[in-house]
Amino acid sequence: MWSTSCLRVVIQTDYSVVDKMQTKAGIIWTLALWNYLAHLLAFVQTTNYQQPAPEDMLYPTDAVQRYVHTEPGSYFGYSVACYVGQSQSFCLVGSPRAKSDALGDQSGPTSSHSNPHTGLVYRIDLDPNLPYCSVVPIATTDEMRQEAGTPYPGFSSWLGGTVAAASNSLDGIQLGCDPRYIYAPEPINRTASGDLGPSQPRTYLGTGQCALYTGASLQYTSVDACYSQEEGACLAGFSADVEPGNQLGEALVALGMPGSYLTEGNVFLGHYRGRELINAMRLKSSPQDLKHMGFNLGYAVSLVKLVRDTDSRTSHKFQDDASGKTNNFRGTSENWGLLASSSMWIDNEYRGIVMLIDQTMELGGITYLKDQWGHIGSFFGYSLATADLDGNGMLDIIVGAPYFTGQKGEEKPTDQNVQVLLKSTKSNRVRDTLTESIPLHTDSQLTGEQPSLDVKWGRLAPDVGRVYVFYGYPSSSVTNSHLLNRDQIRPDYLSRPPIVLSGLKMIGGRFGHSLVNLGDVDGDGTEDLAISCPYCSDADRGHDKGAVLIYLGREDAVLEDSPFQIIWPGDIPRVSPITNCGDFGSESFTVRPFKSFGWSLSAGTDLDGNHAPDLVIGDFDSDQIVLMRARNTLWFDSPEWDLPMTRTLPWSGPDETPCGSECRFHVRLSVAVHGNRALLQQHHHRQLPHAQSFKLHVIIDLDASMENLVFKRLSGRELTNSSHPGLPVNGIMHTVVPVTLTPNELGNIGRLTLLSLALEPQSARVRSFLWKPILINASLLPVSDTMPHLSGSKSVASWMLHPFLGKRYFLSRPLQFANPACGPDNICRADLRVRMMDISDGPTDNLVVYFRERITQRNLTVGIGNLGENAYAAQLRMTIPHHFSFTLPGDLSCQSRLLPTIQATQILCDLGDPLGHTGSDLRPFVFHLNTAGAFRELDVPLHDQPESTGSGNSSDPQMTDRVQQSVVSKRFERELFGLHTQAGQKSVHRDSVIITAEVISGNEDEDLRDNVASITYNLQLTSKIELSSSSLDRTTIDSRNFTVQLYEMQRVHPETLGPEIKHIYLISNNGPSPIEDLWVNISMPMQTEDGEHLVYFLDRVRHQVEDGAQPLMVNKAPEVSIDECEYRNVTTQRLNIKTD
């Protein structure tokens, strides 16, 4: 420690005589304060994603069905679309590089363009018992096009580049497109005479072409969206979507044409009934519409109804139509809307946009969602999806930007101007959203530094990808929806910034390449989302590339930033495919690694009949697709306990003899069951096959407050089987419960009886822990059952049942045994209280710790009292920061353990068993604290796990059963200090240290308000500097007293020129804190304005400490500053003297 010191500055000066003058010295001092408090590292909880356990996965990898193409390089899986037709499940798979076996007559004008790789569209029957892969008969030759009514002559080169499908009661709506279809419009190829000569070369245009099956005819309808010469190479079908109408064979088709009008783009919307085109519209009817506004309009399209009818919302449970696909738009009118994207829009600084377009295609009615958070080339709008993720009945718009480039090591945007804090109602974690454009080089702009080009480019993380979720909120029109047709209502997407999902943040991974609405896969009433990252990889899972991330919607809440599940291809079993496409005579197959897993996605349809929407994932690089079969979900809540209504439970007969069956009581527990309503009704009305039955493993802890099985005080038997009641079981019971639902008072399926028990107290054990309440805990575990369609009939946990999306355990209210030592009601209720006070003698301020003060010993008194009845297993818990060392009171038995998360030590002291009534008097316990380390920098890691330093004996019931000390310790650590896993609050702040004390009782405490006390020590650096001088107030020098005449080149000693003047300044610090650096500034006249010297320094500055040590000599001459001021023709210069 530093002692209070005095600094003595001795300045010896001589003045030559000029005139009688008055010299006045002004002292200006400046203290450079040391940074007295070391920087404390803030605790940050880093949330690393953890894959759920296999029994918790919504898409178990063991249930995968694989389909492959026999010809490598066919791009099988480039596009996928699943649907249900006539109660059968199918999947369309695009294979744009597959070879066509029917080239037809390629002579004549098309011979120069003959190419066997025309592309094909396959239709796979997903029945696992009779799988079959067939080619959809779409024309690939002029002869076939002529028969089908397709414009010709033409040339197919990318058939299957886009597929779309929708379910209906017929064969489903099926659409296959060739966006690179080339044909020669007749007017372009005519000669000057009006005839097309045989030798005249044709001019081919990449117009694109699609084929539509509506289910009303065996022949497809040609969708010719691009027929105008002025539109040019439209690339029609580059993106596509279909939806069924209200009548059989009715379909609505949307096509994106990003090549129209010299790549400015266009959108086509057609209404078909059977093979008849009812109506067709384009967003741009002429080249002047939206001219020079942007490029590639129609890069992605999606048919939407932004507001759903109340009776069709997913929050009213999962409903299936006759086809097996979830359909939330039945019964509504046909006024659909359209989403279309442009990856480069001029008015948006060449960044992407998404248009919300009415079915009328009016240019004035377009709403623009603009990319204000990415950069040019991020391809905002590359992929689109819609889903009701928050259950408010309004579709939310999800936009992918797979080519977004970030910075290496940049987790979140750091600019304070671009962060808005939102909090999920189901999560305490604060979420980031964006409100402004984020510069790519955020760090350099914040620091003001301009790194070199090599540094800038070296920090880029290209193509990591990003996904934006625009939530739909009620607008004024929605508020007044009773005045409008529901189809005319448009939600508000612009008033709030989108939620940003960053995915895995892998360079080149392209997160957001494909998006799909999963439907309500977890059965909570909100739709869910799947996002692909086709080039992400995990070194721990082999060389497979790609991943699909599952995000679960939450009612009235935003998506969690971390996905619920990540589907890695490396986890998929390497088994033979269900069936092959391509060369149907080939049976050989070699397991191929995945190279772009997640390139295409299709979901939202129950394909295997278990009432859960499944997911199909395509990988064109390895020519295969996989069907991920979703698990159905149930969850349980709203427990209802049927417990004894008496105040206390009897536990013994007269003279504490065992009472046996006379003390027996009954307990019953029922819970509410939630999940897919159709599945629950099916199970209620008829018994499902054994492989699909619902079973629960229920673990019943009859005395959860006692950790040791030896001391549990209840035994019981089940009452569900009255004919075979079984033997009593002590402590913990296990049972398997079939999920048999019973109608509630309203006649709806709703509740399940989990347990019905007859319980008896064990008198000998109750006597030792009479005061401790009884808590009954029922925990749920899945029962392993055979999963359908797995090789070897593999058993997994609960194929049809997924209970852990709800509560895992149910705890009863406390039950109390009668205690004769506790007054007329036989229940002891304590009323503990605690006070804290610093009674130290000597410190300047007992509640202030000064930097390096002399007195470092503090006496902290903790007073404890009990105004109620006996307090059993009473304990004192104190938390003392690591900055203070301490000594425990001698009359307390304590244990301690480290709490690194808050940089403190927790002390647990026994107060007696029981602690009786103390009245208003408090029992004092004095803790001796040493504050010498209050300002030191802690070296205890913040992220280490707490380690117990106690030496408790597990065989001692008094030590073992402290109301589950580990649980209470965690509660104390988190709740007492307001700690949460996302928070990271500390008991040490930059200017204070907090010590906290809590008293707890094993039995009930009537008033918890006085159970916690704290004392705060403020940390300060305070010094009191005093300056005094022993020099004369006035010194007069008379030149008449000197007769020495100097001549040129004469050598003169300065002390012979005039009298010696000595100034001594006394600088003292009365503390309590020392100082590191002290500057003394002395101003004095040195010479006249004519340059004549007044003062010469004869001696060095000396520094002498108060304790009488040798003076410290300053080894250099004082610094002299020029031109400070003028006084009576005398220049005053400042002398800066630094003392250490």
CATH topology of the largest domain: Methylamine Dehydrogenase, Chain H
Provide the β-strand percentage band.
Answer: 25-35%
Could you name the CATH homologous superfamily of the largest domain? Integrin alpha, N-terminal
Q: Give the overall shape.
A: flat
Instruction: Please report the number of helical segments.
Output: 9
Task: Describe the model.
With about 1150 residues, the protein is mainly β. Strands 1, 62, 63, 65, 66 and 67 form a 6-stranded antiparallel sheet that branches. Strands 40, 41, 43, 44, 46 and 47 form a 6-stranded antiparallel sheet that branches. The protein is flat. Helix content is about 5%, strand content about 35%.
